[in-house]
Amino acid sequence: MYLPGTIVTLTAVPTPGSKFAGWSGSCGGMGTCVLTMSSTMSVTATFTMPLGLDSSSLPEGEVGAAYNTSLAISGGFPPYTVAVTKGYLPPGLNLGSPTIVGTPTVAGTKRFTITVTDQLGSSAGKRFTLQIYSRLKVATLALAAGKVGRVYNKGLKAKGGPAPYSWSLLPGAPAWLSLSATGKITGTPTDAGTFNATFQVTDPLGGQAQKSFTFKIK
Q1: Cα 19 to Cα 11, 83, 171, distances in angstroms
Q2: Contact 57/87 with Cβ under 8 angstroms?
Q3: What is the pLDDT of residue 22?
Q4: How far apart are CA 71 and CA 214, in angstroms?
Q5: Hey, what CATH topology would domain 52-133 get?
Q6: Whose CA is closest to 156, among 134, 176, 178?
Q7: Rounded alpha-carbon distances, angstroms, from residue 70 to 57, 67, 78, 96, 125
Q8: Which residue, among 215, 204, 201, has the nearest Cα to 156 in the 3D structure?
Q9: Over the stretch 111-167, which tens digit does the pLDDT of each residue have?
Q10: Which residues contact 8 (CB under 8 A, 6 or more apart)?
Q11: Most buried residue among 5, 40, 54, 118 by CB atoms closer than 10 A?
């Protein structure tokens, strides 16, 4: 207990690896806390760990597929400000706080440095490489004709995006036609004529493409 009028001086001493972030309560700012006692006073010294940009890598992206990833930041004194300080993000992407969002428009590989700064002026940067795949497409040009009563067997192909691809059959195809998730068309035609079928392919990044085919059964 201090008598009224007593002057008390407090000094913040960070432990190794931490940083003083400021006073709150009866003191404020970053300097030495000097109190003239007149009543009960409360003072809090805040310390933080060193600021760090902890993300080790960035997930791949794809032209036309929405991209949204968060940057892992630790320590420091928020709020944080993030900026690209060297190089450029892939076209179509923007830097938020602390996220990278958007829809890529150009395939390729970009290298850039992102720097995070906290409220105390500390900063930390890291260099990243971000690969953007080309837009996913159905590469098969046409479906061969088939014959009634003979097993139909055809494999679909795709390009762009990362493998593995997942295929699905949309409504409207002949009842005998079936499709595996790997893109293999099988079945035994029961009627002659001209038929339509629409197929959809999806990749692990959310890229999606559809294509309709017209083919004959003799």
Answers
A1: 13, 23, 62
A2: no
A3: 85
A4: 47
A5: Immunoglobulin-like (2.60.40)
A6: 178
A7: 11, 10, 16, 9, 15
A8: 201
A9: 999 999 988 888 999 999 999 999 999 999 999 999 999 999 999 999 999 999 999
A10: 2, 34, 35, 36, 37
A11: 118
Confidence of residue 184 (pLDDT cuts 50, 70, 90): very high
Pick the residue with more confidence: 187 or 76? 187
**DSSP class per residue in the chain:** ---TT-EEEE---PPTT-EEEEEEES--BSS-EEEE-SS---EEEEEEPPPEE-------EETTS-EEEEPPEESS-SSPEEEEEEE-PPTTEEE-SSEEEE---S-EEEEEEEEEE-TTS-EEEEEEEEEEEPPPEE-------B-TTS-EEEE--EESSPSPPEEEE-TTS-TT-EE-TTSEEEE---S-EEEEEEEEEE-TTS-EEEEEEEEEE-
Place of tokens 């407090």: 10
Could you give the residue range(s) of every CATH 2.60.40.10 domain in the chain?
52-133, 137-217
List the beta bridge partners of residue 108.
Answer: 132
CA nearest to 146, candidates 190, 83, 93, 100:
190
- The answer, yes or no, to whether residue 18 has pLDDT greater than 90, is no
What is the residue type of 25? Answer: G
Taking residues 33-61, what's their average pLDDT?
90
CATH topology for the 137-217 domain = Immunoglobulin-like (2.60.40)
If one counts every other C-beta atom within 10 angstroms of the C-beta of residue 14, the result is: 12
